[in-house]
Write a structure and sequence with these properties.
The chain is α+β, with helices and mostly antiparallel strands. About 50% of the residues lie in helices and about 20% in strands. The strands form 3 sheets. Strands 6, 7, 8 and 9 form a 4-stranded antiparallel sheet that branches. The chain has a 3-stranded antiparallel sheet with strand order 3-2-5, with no helix packed on it. β2 and β3 form a beta hairpin. The longest helix is centred in the C-terminal third of the chain and has 70 residues. It is rod-shaped, with a radius of gyration of 54 Å.
């Protein structure tokens, strides 16, 4: 059987709930205490520091770890990653970036630049930086992240505007990075922004799409020119040293031959002087001795010899023609 319905005239009326003001006050106090307890502690990661504000005014900087702060919005803690290297990307963007200021939505406008010779170039670059002073970083500027991006873009535009398009596209990349880094460090030091720039690196640098083919042909011609110059220098370095070595060898040989001839001439002069002295002492004997010495050198080189008296009238009978 179904139970009878409960009505106002039912013998089993519902009990009436009564809320006293005391219980309401205690409930509100409990909620406030619970909210205050949960908002009184904060944790700072090992790579960060917290800037604590009390009633909106700077109060303290806390290191990594678990810390206590006054609840109900009296103290506010802003976590700043001071021990992590942050990155800014210009002209392109990396997905899933942890830094909200890492790239912007106007990447095409950032990459379009004008060089010093009034040519256009598309430049993509990266800036790596660290926050050196969290207090200056938060309080010196209203929006430090976008402000830093504007300063970096301004410095790069100034450096690109001082150079030709050939320097930007080819040989001037390292100089551009160094010059932009120096200008940016000087600016940030004057502004006391609390940021330290570690590195500026150019990524893709290329001309606009409508003239890119012409620039590629120019670069190809320059590369061929450099290749021919290197080949010519190689041949020069191969031929010229060999020719110089051969010339030095022949010069040394000629100098040696000249010294030899001079020494021989001086020796002959000395010998003739000695002979002259002996000749002056005994002309006849000296003359005969010289004649005999000369014959002694000449006659062995003549081969077979026939010596006859000057009074002989017949020669053939004396010869043995069979031999």
């Amino acid at each position: 059987m179904k139970p009878p319905p409960i009505t106002q005239n039912s013998p089993f009326p519902l009990p009436k709930l009564k809320f006293s003001p005391k219980w309401i006050v205690w409930a509100v106090l409990g909620i406030l205490l619970l909210k205050g307890a949960t908002s009184s502690f904060y944790t700072v990661s090992p790579e960060s520091e917290a800037v604590v504000q009390r009633f909106g005014k700077f109060h303290a900087i806390t290191p990594p770890g678990l810390h206590f702060k006054l609840p109900y919005g009296i103290d506010r803690a802003t976590i700043v990653p001071v021990r992590r290297q942050l990155k800014l990307e210009f002209g392109f963007g990396t997905d899933n970036a942890t830094n909200p200021d890492q790239f912007s939505d106007e990447q095409a406008l950032e990459s379009d630049m004008v060089t010093g010779d009034l040519n256009a170039a598309q430049v993509e670059w990266i800036v790596q930086y660290t926050i050196s002073s969290p207090r200056q970083y938060l309080y010196q500027f209203r929006n430090p992240g976008p402000t830093l991006r504007d300063l970096v873009e301004s410095a790069m535009c100034e450096v690109i505007g001082d150079r030709t398009v050939d320097e930007v596209l080819t040989v001037g990349r390292t100089e551009i990075e160094t010059s932009c880094l120096a200008r940016l460090k000087t600016t940030l030091t004057k502004l006391n922004m609390g940021v330290s720039i570690d590195q500026i690196q150019l990524k893709n640098v290329h001309p606009p799409a409508n003239v890119q083919r012409a620039f590629e042909e120019v670069n190809r011609a320059q590369q061929e020119r450099e290749q021919l110059i290197n080949e010519a220098n190689g041949q020069y370095n191969q031929v010229i040293p060999r020719a110089k070595g051969l010339a030095n060898q022949r010069i040394s040989a000629a100098e040696g031959y000249a010294i030899q001839r001079i020494n021989e001439a001086e020796g002959d002069v000395t010998r003739f002087k000695e002979l002259l002295i002996q000749y002056d002492k005994a002309p006849a004997i000296t003359k005969q001795r010289l004649y005999l010495e000369t014959m002694n050198e000449v006659l062995p080189n003549l081969g077979s010899k026939i010596i006859i008296d000057e009074d002989a009238k017949q020669f053939l009978p004396l010869m043995n023609l069979n031999k």
